[in-house]
Design a protein that fits this description.
The chain contains seven helices and no strands. The chain has a single domain, classed as Up-down Bundle (Vanadium-containing Chloroperoxidase, domain 1).
Length: about 170
């Protein structure tokens, strides 16, 4: 466990030291807001549900994102109660409102990767674009100092598993 904590802290500090710029601040705030409440994925599910050809994928996406958000926020986070990095190190100024819930896992990441796997059933570039946006949203959580890399990694693994479950 100690090596995970060391890894988490070293990656977080590396991101803050080497990648932090005003332009990245704006980009990461935008990305994280696209993941807030699954807004990007809910909008995409509505668009997919409007077309007969992709209606099934749109409904599957809506159900997947809703269930993943509920399980992550209402069951997993309260069970683990991991303190967020921004609540352990107050020397880093936050660019967003300080979250009050737990850190583990990143539900932005969990829902985004579950959504990306679900969207892959539509085929084409939309699936690849979904994984790209899921990755950017997930990275934004570390960049903004509200999640550890292990929160994001486990969120991605759980999301891929959940997305696969909803496809079966």
């Amino acid at each position: 466990m100690l090596t995970v904590v060391k890894f988490d802290r070293s990656v977080m500090e590396w991101i803050q030291r080497h990648l932090k710029t005003r332009r990245m601040d704006r980009l990461m705030l935008w990305a994280t807001r696209m993941g807030d409440g699954g807004v990007l994925w809910l909008l995409l599910s509505a668009l997919l549900a409007c077309r007969e050809k992709t209606r099934h994928a749109g409904l599957a996406l809506l159900i997947c994102v809703t269930v993943c958000a509920a399980i992550g926020n209402l069951a997993i986070k309260p069970f683990f109660k991991r303190t967020r990095p921004c609540n352990l190190n107050f020397s880093r100024p936050l660019l967003l409102k300080r979250p009050r819930d737990s850190s583990f896992p990143s539900c932005h990441t969990l829902t985004s990767f579950a959504a990306a796997v679900t969207v892959c059933q539509t085929g084409g570039l939309l699936g690849a674009a979904s994984f790209f946006f899921a990755s950017v949203i997930s990275f934004s959580r570390m960049y903004l100092y509200v999640h550890y890399p292990s929160d994001v990694l486990i969120g991605a693994v759980l999301g891929v598993a959940a997305g696969g479950f909803f496809l079966s």
